[in-house]
């Protein structure tokens, strides 16, 4: 007697195709939830930058640093973007602190004596002191914030010799 399995094989193929389609649909749904659902929670990473900070405590002619510095400037910290990523200056803040707290906080655009374009190599900031003020007892930071302003990173931290 010859036995035929042809009918059972056809059912096996249909079940296999249905299972494969179900697995593909489930994986597609999972991937779309992962990529579309979590996409809004990812933050921009802070730019990778290298700064050079050069302190000058006996300034005779502020124009040699930048023409917009006040004429009675007696100290300048030249902060130069030497290498790394270019970044939007509206997302960077200059913060100057003394041992009692924050004295000054301003955007890179406002603190940079007029730069409002993308910050790249050789661009500089010129925190300065005039009159009886000094930078030697201050801490200066450049902070970067993501678009929401919720997360940030310290791009540069400089402390004067007398800062505690």
Plain-language structure description:
With 164 residues, the protein is an alpha+beta fold. It has two domains: 36 residues; 111 residues, Immunoglobulin-like (Sandwich). It is 23% helix and 33% strand. The chain contains two helices and eight strands, in the order H-E-E-E-E-H-E-E-E-E. Strands 1, 2, 5 and 6 form a four-stranded antiparallel beta sheet that branches. Strand 3 and strand 4 form a beta hairpin. The longest helix has 33 residues. The chain is rod-shaped, with a radius of gyration of 30 Å. The termini are far apart.
How much helicity do the residues have? 10-25%
Shape category: rod-shaped
Number of separate strands: 8
Helix-strand makeup class: alpha+beta
Q: What is the name of the CATH topology of the largest domain?
A: Immunoglobulin-like
For this structure, the quaternary state is single chain
CATH architecture assignment name of the largest domain: Sandwich
Percentage of β-strand residues: 25-35%
Number of helices: 2
Low-pLDDT residue intervals, each spanning 5 or more residues? none
CATH class of the largest domain: Mainly Beta
Supply Rg: 30 Å
Number of domains: 2
Mean pLDDT comes to 81
N-to-C SSE string, H for helix and E for strand: HEEEEHEEEE
Distance between the termini: 99 Å
């Amino acid at each position: 007697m010859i036995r035929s399995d042809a009918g059972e094989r056809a059912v096996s193929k249909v079940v296999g195709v249905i299972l494969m389609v179900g697995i593909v649909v489930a994986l597609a749904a999972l991937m779309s939830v992962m990529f579309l659902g979590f996409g809004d929670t990812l933050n921009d990473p802070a730019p990778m930058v290298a700064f050079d900070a050069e302190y000058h405590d006996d300034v005779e002619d502020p124009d040699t640093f930048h023409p917009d510095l006040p004429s009675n400037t007696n100290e300048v910290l030249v902060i130069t973007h030497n290498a790394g990523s270019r970044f939007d200056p509206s997302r960077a803040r200059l913060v100057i602190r003394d041992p009692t707290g924050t004295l000054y906080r301003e955007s890179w655009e406002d603190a940079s004596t007029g730069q409002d374009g993308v910050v790249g190599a050789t661009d500089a900031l010129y925190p300065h002191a005039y009159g009886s003020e000094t930078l030697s007892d201050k801490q200066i930071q450049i902070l970067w914030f993501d678009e929401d302003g919720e997360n940030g990173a310290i791009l540069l931290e400089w402390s004067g010799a007398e800062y505690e």
